[in-house]
Each structure stands twice: as structure tokens, then as C-alpha cells.
Write a structure and sequence with these properties.
The protein is of the alpha+beta class. The chain is built from 1 helix and 11 strands. It has 2 domains: 33 residues; 112 residues, Immunoglobulin-like.
Length: 152
């Protein structure tokens, strides 16, 4: 015979798991939602072994990293403090992973597929920079596939 306590504990567990599932679904949807009106759109293309940043005005900049001086020439991801930036990420040749570790930004760059992500730039003083790196092994010079988010 089934006890009333067994039924109560089973129902309580089912209700609790359903609540967690509903809350998780809503939270995941909100995390993946893009802002209605971001401040800036940037298309990021991963190449072996550099990042290309294309801005709304169709200007594109290739970012070349120099490991000896820890500097980038040719371009970077530029954004004003407090801006909401939507990045559209893809790969030109192999799978890359666009990562800004200090801001918790990470999204895969897959050839033939556009991935979308939005983040808010920290309210840091102009000239502050955050490291951008590839975190998906993409070949021989993967370790030099770096750039910077420059606060303008």
C-alpha cells in the first residue's frame, strides 16, 4: 500500500523540479536574447591566425599581434565605455573561439555560420584594453591569435 507521505514527497519533488526547469528555461532565453538597440554592431571574422573586425561603416581592420611587445597593429575592437556592443562572429577557415576572459565573453567562430552575442563594455577610462584571444586550437600559430578590446 502506498503511504500518503510517499505521494506527498513525490509530488513535492515533481513540483520543485518543474519550477527549476521553468525558471532555467526563462533564464536561458534571457541570456541569449540580443538587445533591441545596441550602440554598435561589429562583425568579427576569425582567420588563421588573426582577427578581422568589420564595423557598420564597412571599414574592416585586420589585427596582427606581436608577442615580443604584447601589442597589436592594424586594428582592434574599439568601443566607448558603457556601450552595448553586438558582435556577429564567424570563421573564415577553421573553428576559432572569440574570448575576452576579463569580461566573460566567449563565443565560437564557425565557418559558414554566424553566431551573435551582445555585451556591455565596462565604464573604464579611455585607453584601457582587454585581451581578446582564440581559445579553440586552430593551428600552428594559435598562440599568437590575439587582439585587444580598446576603450575609446
Amino acid at each position: 500500500m502506498v503511504s500518503k507521505w510517499e505521494i506527498a514527497w513525490t509530488l513535492a519533488t515533481v513540483v520543485m523540479l518543474a519550477g527549476v526547469a521553468a525558471y532555467s528555461t526563462i533564464l536561458l532565453y534571457q541570456l541569449d536574447a540580443l538587445p533591441a538597440d545596441p550602440t554598435e554592431y561589429v562583425e568579427v571574422i576569425g582567420h588563421q591566425w588573426y582577427w578581422e573586425f568589420c564595423y557598420q561603416n564597412t571599414s574592416c581592420y585586420n589585427s596582427s599581434y606581436d608577442a615580443t611587445t604584447n601589442t597589436v597593429s592594424g586594428g582592434a575592437l574599439w568601443a566607448p565605455p558603457g556601450a552595448v556592443v553586438q558582435i556577429n562572429v564567424t570563421g573564415a577557415d577553421v573553428i576559432h573561439s572569440f574570448n575576452i576572459p576579463q569580461l566573460g565573453v566567449r563565443i565560437d567562430a564557425i565557418p559558414g555560420r554566424m553566431n551573435y552575442f551582445a555585451f556591455t563594455v565596462p565604464n573604464a577610462p579611455a585607453g584601457t584594453s582587454y585581451l581578446i584571444q582564440c581559445t579553440e586550437f586552430c593551428g600552428e600559430f594559435h598562440g599568437t591569435m590575439r587582439s585587444f578590446l580598446e576603450i575609446t
